């Protein structure tokens, strides 16, 4: 096992270990193993972020999800022996955050992540499939839990899985133009470039439907070239659909349970469909070519008063 990376607050781990190109997008600061085989990873959240903006004076729950995502390549390469260049693929992801504990701090927030592992399958001393459970703590208070299942694949296996669609240049050249998005305020966003839903005619009166808007020039969601819609784009689509359909308007997502069934391609339209459930839980599905690629159950809460009021965070509810 490689040597631990010292936990140094404010000093990010090397960006290639979390599959990022922009140093400013790396939230992890170190890791160490425990005698019980668990791993502790430290992270630092900025007070604000260009994409994962605070919501009503609280950290964005998708910043929590992105922090979890970054742990997967770090664990894979540094703990489980997965070579750099292997592709990681999400199977499912669930998370839950405490709205009260996600209160925005008056300085960058140091977060401690405790991770345990299960159902690990190895081949040639390298992980191929694994489940990770995570608890996040800040200032002694638990702020959230998460669980995810993922797999790792060599370049050769990935080429076979993608069946001729793994070429990055071809994927970018053939990608659909993102087109216009919904009004930013209607999906809890400030900037048009951050909207990932495009308007379309809903096929039924029982569910809202939008086209997935994939802007390959987005500096966060497409930090580096990919040959398919990235997982964080699909999580963001589920969040925006939920916010758009929530009766409270700009609600805050607190829980999400997702399943990744197949790749969402960039050269064909994909449809984001929303159906309300019970107790402010919404069902979101992403379909492409009449097949379901991604599903999510999303719970959202009406905005809570902020201890750090900021009028810029109070977006009006706009019909979408």
UniProtKB/TrEMBL annotation:
InterPro entries: AfsA-like (IPR047757), AfsA_hotdog_dom (IPR005509). One of its GO terms (molecular function) is transferase activity. It comes from the Bacteria. Pfam families: AfsA. Signal peptide: none annotated. Residues 17-150, 187-279 form the A-factor biosynthesis hotdog domain. This is Transcriptional regulator. It comes from Streptacidiphilus fuscans.
């Amino acid at each position: 096992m490689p040597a631990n990376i010292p936990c140094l607050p404010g000093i990010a781990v090397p960006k290639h270990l979390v599959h990022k190109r922009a140093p400013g997008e790396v939230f992890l600061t170190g890791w160490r193993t425990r005698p019980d085989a668990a791993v502790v990873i430290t992270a630092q959240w900025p007070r604000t972020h260009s994409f994962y903006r605070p919501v009503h004076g609280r950290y964005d729950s998708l910043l929590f999800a992105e922090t979890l995502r970054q742990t997967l390549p770090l664990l894979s390469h540094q703990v489980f022996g997965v070579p750099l260049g292997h592709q990681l693929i999400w199977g499912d992801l669930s998370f839950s955050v405490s709205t009260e504990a996600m209160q925005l701090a008056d300085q960058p927030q140091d977060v401690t992540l405790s991770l345990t592992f299960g159902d690990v399958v190895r081949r040639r001393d390298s992980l191929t499939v694994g489940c990770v459970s995570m608890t996040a703590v800040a200032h002694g208070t638990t702020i959230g839990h998460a669980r995810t299942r993922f797999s790792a694949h060599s370049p050769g296996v990935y080429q076979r899985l993608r069946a001729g669609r793994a070429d990055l240049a071809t994927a970018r050249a053939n990608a659909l133009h993102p087109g216009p998005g919904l009004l930013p305020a209607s999906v809890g966003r400030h900037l048009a470039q951050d909207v990932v839903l495009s308007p379309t005619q809903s096929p039924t009166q029982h569910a809202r439907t939008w086209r997935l808007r994939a802007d390959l020039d987005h500096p966060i969601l497409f930090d580096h070239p990919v040959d398919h819609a990235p997982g964080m784009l699909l999580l963001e689509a589920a969040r925006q659909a939920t916010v758009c359909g929530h009766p409270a308007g700009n609600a805050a997502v607190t829980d999400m349970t997702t399943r990744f069934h197949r790749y969402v391609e960039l050269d064909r339209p994909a449809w984001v469909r929303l159906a309300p459930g019970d107790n402010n839980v919404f069902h979101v599905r992403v379909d492409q070519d009449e097949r379901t690629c991604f599903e999510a159950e999303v719970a959202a809460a009406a905005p809570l008063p902020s201890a750090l009021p900021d009028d810029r965070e109070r977006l009006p509810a706009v019909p979408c």
